[in-house]
Amino acid sequence: MNSNMNESENKIINNKIAHRYLLFIIGLFIASMGVAFSTKAGLGTSPVASVPYSISLVSSLFTFGGWLNLLSVIQIVIQVLLLRNKCKPVEIIIQTVLAFVYGYLTNLSCWLIRQVEVRSYVGQVFFMLMGCVILAFGIWVQLKGNVAMLPGEAMNRAISQVTGKRYENVKIFFDIFYIALSAVICLVVLGRLEGVREGSIVAAILVGNIIKVYSKLFDMLVRHGEANR
């Protein structure tokens, strides 16, 4: 009897874990679509991607994806140093794998909308805003999955946990930092801005705030559902 109960409980737990990982992967793909929309807009890359993109323009040591992976490794190291004993080795391994998977998903997302043409500045702004909305939703879904995150977002979460600052505010700060660093790299080495434009600044400000909106709407729906029970 106890053996059957344990098997049933283990099955339920495994199903919940599987659902959470599925939710995370869905969030990962949604986020990659957000990046694809932002890239299609042509008004600047997303804040996190702006640094490796800028470096790839001034150094041929690695490709854009290679520099993106290197940034992910740095972000993972920062997490380990901050969380120490609270750091989960399995999650770190998953993050490392997902850092590479995310690159392939982003390429796929860009391929899916490759035939879409943006011919006016109004269209560029529309795609830029859609990119922010989609990217924020993808990150929010990853947070709800609560099994793993991309290194950049996980680093923001670790800093939030250690400092007590809201996750969204930490994200906004680092998004602005990435853009500023990218601008400095391009201006100093190339003498012009590449991959960092008004869209990057808008994304740095909007994405974190849109995540707040998603969180508030979700909490309202949960409270409304509980009130109607």
Number of helical segments with 4 or more residues: 8
SSE ordering:
HHHHHHHH
Count of structural domains: 1
Q: Report the span from N to C terminus.
A: 33 Å
**Secondary structural class:** mainly alpha
User: Outline, from the CA principal axes?
Assistant: globular
Q: What's the total number of strands?
A: 0
Assess the beta-strand content as a share of residues.
under 5%
Radius of gyration: 19 Å
Identify low-pLDDT runs: none
Explain this structure to me?
- With 229 residues, the protein is mostly helical.
- The chain has one domain.
- The protein contains eight helices and no strands.
- It has helices spanning 2-41, 47-58, 64-83, 89-112, 121-145, 151-163, 167-190, 198-227.
- Helix 2 packs across helix 3 (64-83) and helix 3 (64-83) packs antiparallel against helix 4 (89-112).
- It is globular and about 65 Å long.
- The two termini are 33 Å apart.
- 37% of the residues are buried.
